[in-house]
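[User]
If only I could read C-alpha cells as easily as an amino acid sequence. I have put the entry right below:
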Amino acid sequence: MAARPQAAAAPRLLTLDRVGQIFVPVGDMAAAVRWYAAVLGLEPGVTSHGGTIDDIPTDGETWLALDANRPDFLASGPSRFFLWTDEMAATVEHLRRLDVTITSDVADIGSVFFVHFEDPDGNALMVCQRT
C-alpha cells in the first residue's frame, strides 16, 4: 500500500501574541475617556465615528477602544481583560487615590497576585502581578 501524502501545515494566520485592540463597551464616552486615561496614565485618544469610538493609544502594540455603539450592553460577567503590574501595592494605592471601585481584596493564587476593580460602567477589570 502506498504511503499517503502529508498535507502541508496550514499557515498560522491568527495569533494571540499580537492582539491589536481591546474593545470595552461604555455608556458615557466622555466620562469613560477621562477615567481610562487617568487610571492607565495615558493621554486620551481621538474620539471618532460620530463620538462612539475612542482609541486610546498605548506604549505597546495593543490599543484600547472605548465603544459606545452598544447602549444595551450588560456590564455583568467576568473581567473584560487584565493588565500586568510589577508593583501590586502601588497599583492598588493608585486605584484608591482615583476613587476606583475595587471589588476584591488582593488574592494570591500561587502563580499571581490579582485584584478586581470596575470602570464607571461597571465593566469588571483585573490587574495581576506574577509571584
